[in-house]
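Glutathione hydrolase proenzyme
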Amino acid sequence: MKNNIYCLLFLTLLTYNITAQDRITGEAFATRSEVLGQNGMVATSHPLATQIGLDILKKGGNAIDAAIAANAALGLMEPTGCGIGGDLFAIVWDGKTKKVYGLNASGRSPKELTLEYFENQGMKKIPSHGALPVSVPGAVDGWFELHKKFGSKPMTEILAPAIDYAEKGFPLTELIAWYLNRSIPFYQSKNFPNLKETYINQNGGKLPNEGEIYKNPFLANTYRKIAKGGRDAFYKGDIAKTIGKFIKEQGGFLSEKDLAAHKSEWVQPVSVNYRGYDVWELPPNGQGIAALQMLQILKGYDFSNIEFGSAEHLHLFTEAKKIAFEDRAKYYADMDFFKVPVEELLSDAYADKRRKEIGKRAGKYSAGKISAGETIYMTVADKNGTMISLIQSNYRGMGSGMVPPKLGFMLQDRGELFSLKRGQANTYEPGKRPFHTIIPAFITKDNKPFVSFGVMGGDFQPMGHTQIVMNLIDFGMNLQEAGDAPRFDHTGGASPMGAITTNTGTIRTESGIPYTTIRGLMDRGHRIGTARGIYGGYQAILWDNINKVYHGASESRKDGQAAGY
């Protein structure tokens, strides 16, 4: 009898422990509830950066002030994904004018570096690291363009929190410590200079681990110069001289003149309507319209009868991706150098035509005939209704490996994304912006803001954008569930860097996709694989126009946080 009571007690405790780990409401895969706030919301990949943005909002700053402050903090706290050595793109919903604005703050290739140079060196592609792939870093100019048009607080106040953390230090998070302890030794193995002085010597002679204090006084000094002297302190002052001299010493071509000539561009975002929602992206040289092309094809299917994560869902998604990415390879490039047929690519007629090519099995496609690595994503909303969707990156994690002396940051290697094949849209030219993977997104409904969001991850980004839109609209998930849902991607096919399609590629899935789906995809002729660390980076803010409440969500695959008030 006593043994039976103990068994019953054990089973009761076991049942309690199991159910205590399960959420009472929502999808089983959700990691937490949405964050709610009436006056403002910040969602970034680092809790301290989120708090900096929130503090700016509470002190009377607007969404743009808070976004710049948080982005500056992320350049310090997440150097493995972003920094002022990289580029920036943003979509802004302005609460005053009730319009969307787009900023392309990506940099151009060196004027003195030519296609012939690579050909004479016998190179088939631009190297991934070193001085040759370095293009002009556009982030700082992007900050000041955003600030000039929408900002309210002085830049000295906006950059002060990041400067303070850079000088006094902060504890590294689990994920960034892991990346940093992998990245720096890799660059050191290539004998790149200034790594030890910048990332190790200032931290007690070793790379910090999770929970240990990390400092970057060189970056604090650079930020201080920018806060006081404006964008010209970066592009025309001592900083520019240091960068130009250093890159030349390393055998590269980026010069003071290239930096002095740089300017960002305000562009008109483009959109498609997906089941009553207008989804906005920036036009090329980024890849945002690939997400729009995918949505145009997918809206021709009734997903009310297709289960999330089913073989049919992943099959149709993958085939739409293949078609869009073939067009991406052929047509996406700097529109100052190539006439990208954006209107035709996003038209209903073109989508209808391409949709007819999709069958029941894995297909292989070519571009349509037209008549004409790591990143950070963050978003902020304020009490005046302004929302900013901002993405910023060095490419390939920390970037090129080129660390100018005593400046505290690494330069990007975006130039790797040019093609060296003559006659292509994205073929290298001096003063040209490379094809870009980083893309911010925005959704409106009935000309009102709905969701500001983004998903990091190189080629995965347009696929991630499309998955989020479908999760919200087709599958009825809330904002956090839409990001927590298991993800999948497709790799293989043509690229803007010159690769061509040789087979049907591979679908890679997270562990949350059931085996029955994988088996069903195999039956349709798809190859299946896995990948590590390519899916994470989602942040989002939703505006509930009925209750006048912001909903925030942050990526469960990273260290981030959404917070509001």
